[in-house]
Amino acid sequence: MRAIRVMPELLVSQIAAGEVVERPASVLKELLENSLDAGATELQVTLDAGGVKRVQVDDDGGGVAQGDLGLALARHATSKIGSLEELEAVATLGFRGEALASIAAVARVELVSRARDAAHAWSVAAEGGAPREPRPAARAPGTTVSVADLYFNTPARRKFLRTEATEFGHCDEAFRRVALARPDLAFTLRHNGRVSVHLKPQSLEARAAALLGDGFAAASVPVDAQAGPLRLRGLAGAPQAARNRADAQYFFVNGRYVRDRLLAHAVREAYRDTLHGERQPAFVLRLELDPRAVDVNVHPAKTEVRFRDARGVHQFVFHALQRALAPSAADAPVSYASVSAPGPAIQAALAMREPVMDYRPAAAPLPASQKAPPLGYALAQLHGVYILAQNEAGLVLVDMHAAHERILMEKMKLGLDAGGIERQSLLVPAVFRAQALDVATAEENRAALETLGLELSVAGPNELAVRAAPALLAGGDVPALARSLLAELREFGAAQVLAARQNELLATLACHAAVRANRALSVPEMNALLREMEETERSGSCNHGRPTWYQLTLGDLDKLFLRGR
Ligand SMILES: Nc1ncnc2c1ncn2[C@@H]1O[C@H](COP(=O)(O)OP(=O)(O)O)[C@@H](O)[C@H]1O
Ligand SMILES: [Mg+2]
Fold first, then answer.
1. CA angle 279, 283, 289 (to 5 degrees)
2. Higher per-residue pLDDT: 207 or 164
């Protein structure tokens, strides 16, 4: 063993570069974000050989003062925050002060910048190490950062670069993300000397049409919803704009492109009634909220975020999107009934018109012998979605999918609390294709999966077999369930999934198992569901906070028909 030594600065930066500078596209992302933070209105991207030879961004932003030039390339040097308080409220895209230093550790970097009030520009260059002395240079106010020969001094990493076309594809995607986040700015993208995209400042609709195609623009609905400090705006693709791949899904949080499972789940749920099967929705959505309510310092690349009120954000996004996708349902007068129970705070904030009803026993009790249960007896099923039932007070309407989902979730929660969800062996194992990583995840997480009611075995290098599934959902789409649980485990790890993410997890399970709309239920099945609702805690609202049932009293119906008493 060697003695312990403090690493030289360059080695620290090269190690850090592994996280920040994965490929040319990550360089491009960092440079574009710096230009946005500098208040640029016009950004020009120049790429050579997919960005491997050169990634360059020119902007007309505020520039760097001469005295700061050397620091811009130094590690942990930033002009954006100076204290923990500022970190917690950070409104800029950058703040870690490590991107340029990391990039400079593994590439040849030149920074030419002219501050607005400076007489001329200055240039500073670094090649895998400390920057050289700044020299006077010529350019208009703004900044050019040029990054050449990525990984020239770290051959092991260079081997991970793919073909020029692949690297260009990733750069193009990084460019689109920024261009969609800021339709108010002008962008140009050049590759190998040819202009491949040119965008002038425009509306989001026009920007989306330019980058995602006219098809998307024509088949999307505007979203604009606000609830207290939360605001969601953007364009949600209608089912006609759905795709086979999830390649047109852009979610921005305070201007930052993110991939977040909580948000993805809220979106998926909102689309659930309109989008079938494996079709992927297309959307460009921008969530804005108080920067203090979201932690962006989760990972150096900052595509993950954590919300302080994760549940509130989920609810808000889900409802806002669902209403945008089905305006008619949301605008319809849902409430004729006298509603007394105020919903949870978030519903008040959303000014939801659908109230969450408390369970209230009917007013006039029938003689004991005929006493009807609180939710009454089923009469019929309406359009495969609602159960109509009669109780003492009048008519009860039940959203059968929402109610079933809630019941399943509560049952599984009880199972999990008691040590594990009850399993049922499948007579014929359900075999499905899986990626090598899924196979590995299944093997590593055998115990966690069993706690969740799933028993998987490896059926081949690219195949898994489900041998047992949660008893409550053995009849459902078991492979789809297994796939989403594996994805969850892969992303968050077993400990997280079973503890902090338990509710999300149970919601996923329940969602896979609950009766789908348009399934005909027999009257006894409907009555069984009503009885289970009465016994289930929190059955008044579904897992997403929507009400599961609604009472229309005879009085309400009389009023509806202007029937005097
Ligand atoms: N295009 C630019 N225009 C103006 N200043 C820039 C630009 N790029 C980088 N800088 C300056 O260099 C600093 C370091 O950049 P970077 O390493 O990306 O860290 P961070 O963005 O986290 O502050 C920034 O804080 C900023 O002051
Ligand atoms: Mg930065």
1. 135
2. 207
Is 51's pLDDT higher than 90?
A: yes
* Beta carbon of 94 within 6 Å of any ligand 1 atom: yes
Question: How many whole angstroms from 32 Cα to the centroid of ligand 2?
Answer: 8
Sign of CA dihedral 269, 271, 274, 277: negative
For 561, residues 6+ apart whose C-beta sits below 8 A from its C-beta are: none
**23/150 Cα distance (integer angstroms):** 8
Q: Does residue 503's CB lie within 6 angstroms of at least one atom of ligand 1?
A: no
519 CA distance to ligand 1 centroid (A)? 57
> What value does the mean pLDDT of the chain take?
83
Res. 492: pLDDT tops 70: yes
97 in contact with ligand 1, CB cutoff 6 A: yes
Nearest Cα residue to atom 7 of ligand 1: 34
Q: 244: helix, coil or strand?
A: coil
What is the layout of strands, in order, in the sheet containing 549-553? 377-382, 386-390, 394-399, 549-553
Compute, in angstroms, the gap from residue 144 CA to the centroid of ligand 2.
14
Round to whole Å and give the CA distance between 224 and 235. 9
For residue range 89-145, list pLDDT tens digits in order: 788 888 888 899 889 989 999 999 999 999 999 999 998 877 888 999 999 999 999
The response to whether residue 61 sits with its C-beta less than 6 Å from ligand 1 reads yes
Ligand 1 pocket test, candidate residues 27, 34, 55, most atoms within 8 A of CB: 34
- Predicted confidence band of residue 349 (pLDDT cuts 50, 70, 90): very low
| Residue 461 near residue 431 (C-beta atoms within 8 A) | no
Judge whether residue 399 has pLDDT over 60. yes
CA of 40 to the centre of ligand 1 (A): 12
Q: By the 8 A CB rule, do 449 and 442 touch?
A: yes
pLDDT band at 157 (very low <50, low <70, confident <90, very high): confident
Q: What angle do CA 527, 531, 532 make, to 5 degrees?
A: 115
**Confidence band, pLDDT 50/70/90 cuts, at residue 515:** low
282: helix, strand or coil: coil
3-state helix, strand, coil in the chain (%, to 5): 40, 25, 40
Query: Ligand 2 centre from 95 Cα, in Å?
Result: 7
CA angle in degrees (0–180, nearest 5) for 256-199-116: 70
